[in-house]
Design a protein that fits this description.
Elements (H helix, E strand, L loop, with lengths): L4 E2 L11 E6 L2 E2 L9 E6 L2 E3 L11 E9 L7 E12 L7 E6 L2 E3 L8 E6 L2 E3 L8 E6 L2 E3 L10 E9 L9 E6 L2 E6 L3 E6 L1 E6 L10 E4 L4 E3 L2
């Protein structure tokens, strides 16, 4: 399908499809591309509140998308050069790779497994809660209370902006360039940064041994 336009009246277009390609198209409708397998989308503009649910093998590249619940409960998805705006994105997903993209979302990646985000901007609130094997590489992370209750969380060469109360009850290995507003009760691991505004250790409900290491001063603030 190429150079097509599906307006908002289509509602539930492209369900149960396999081995398809969509390019240079405009996709509307609240429930576009659901329970599909091996669909490639390129140079598309998408406005679909529940896009890509319960699908597998979706590749989305060089596109813009607005979606309130993007890729709910999907598997083996890749995004490259995507600009997206949404709220509850990538929940209950497994095996997701995102590159060179801008994500303006809210509580993304909740309960997700095996997610890698590279060279991207990730803006939201409560990012990544309850995720497992979430890795962010060369990313800019923006927003309050990110990356809490995570298992096997990794940050490599990332920056963080307006990220207060970060990493609460997370198992984390993080290399952050620059400043973190605050870190709260990391469960385990090491968070390395250039500076931190506050390390909050108050009434943890579980044993918390995570450490914050200030790179420039080689000063360890931890358990």
């Amino acid at each position: 399908m190429t150079k097509c336009r599906l307006d908002d009246k289509t509602r539930a277009a492209i369900w149960y499809a396999e081995n398809g390609k969509i390019s240079d198209s405009i996709l509307g409708g609240i429930k576009a591309v659901r329970e599909c397998t091996d669909i490639g989308l390129k140079n598309c503009h998408i406005d679909s509140e529940e896009f890509g649910w319960k699908s597998q093998g979706i590749i989305l590249e060089d596109s813009e998308i607005i979606s309130e619940y993007l890729f709910f409960d999907s598997r083996d998805v890749r995004l490259n050069n995507v600009k997206m705006k949404g709220k509850y994105s990538f929940q209950y997903m497994e095996n997701l790779e995102i590159k060179n993209s801008e994500l303006d979302t809210k509580d993304a990646f909740w309960h997700s497994k095996n997610v890698t985000v590279r060279d991207s901007i990730v803006k939201g609130e409560y990012l990544g809660w309850f995720s497992e094997n979430l890795t962010l590489i060369n990313c800019k992370i923006i927003g309050t209370q990110p990356l809490c209750y995570c298992k096997n969380l990794t940050l490599i060469n990332c920056t963080m902006e307006d990220t207060d109360l970060s990493f609460e009850y997370s198992e984390v290995l993080a290399d952050v360039k620059g400043h973190i507003v605050s870190v709260k009760n990391p469960k385990s691991g090491i968070i390395t940064c250039d500076s931190v505004g506050e390390i909050v250790r108050e009434a943890p409900v579980m044993k918390c041994t995570g450490e914050v290491v200030i790179r420039e001063k080689n000063e360890k603030k931890g358990a």
